[in-house]
Amino acid sequence: MLDFNSIKDILAQSRTIAVIGAKDKPSQPVDMVGRYLISAGFNVIPVHPKRQNVWGLKTYPSIKDVKEPVDIVDLFRASQFCPDHAREVLQLAQPPKLFWMQSGIRSPEAEELLAGTPTQVVSDECLMVVHRRLFR
User: Fold this and answer.
1) What is the sign of the dihedral through the CA atoms of 81, 118, 122 and 45?
2) What's the predicted TM-score (pTM) here?
3) How many other CB atoms sit within 10 Å of the CB of residue 130?
4) 45 touches 21 (CB < 8 A)
5) N or C: which end of the chain has fewer CB within 10 A?
């Protein structure tokens, strides 16, 4: 994992976060994190294959459908789906700075796919908790 100073630098330079697996169901971690990121001033882009309006925002079926550059891809998907999302990230014209797998999510295969690319990987960490810790 990246050290927290490197993560802090990347977060400070980042503006746009795509949340894969976005849902606005109260009391679910993805909802709490998504709302926190919006309140922290990030441009949040929800990604979900079936939902069309999460947090009052246009929601895209896939990260490949997002037309603007994304700084961070934040995953709320089971570990077995992360390699496929890593492959999607590899197809983007502009790679994100971070591929962030939320608490409880690890994928050595996704990490291996992104090794040697400009996209750094964070596993098994909550973006909201880390952001709060680094930017009090």
Assistant:
1) negative
2) 0.95
3) 17
4) no
5) C
What is the rounded distance in angstroms from the CA atom of residue 136 to the CA atom of residue 134? 6
pLDDT of residue 3: 84
Select from 126, 129, 136, 119 the least CA-distant residue to 14. 119
User: Given this model, what pLDDT does residue 136 score?
Assistant: 81
Task: Give 22-27 contacts, CB < 8 A, sequence gap 24+.
Answer: 22/46, 22/47, 22/48, 22/51, 22/54, 22/55, 22/59, 22/76, 23/48, 23/51, 23/54, 23/76, 24/54, 24/55
Q: Is 75 helix (H, G, I), strand (E, B) or coil?
A: strand
pLDDT surpassing 70 at residue 1: no
Query: What is the CA angle 50-52-57, rounded to 5?
Result: 140
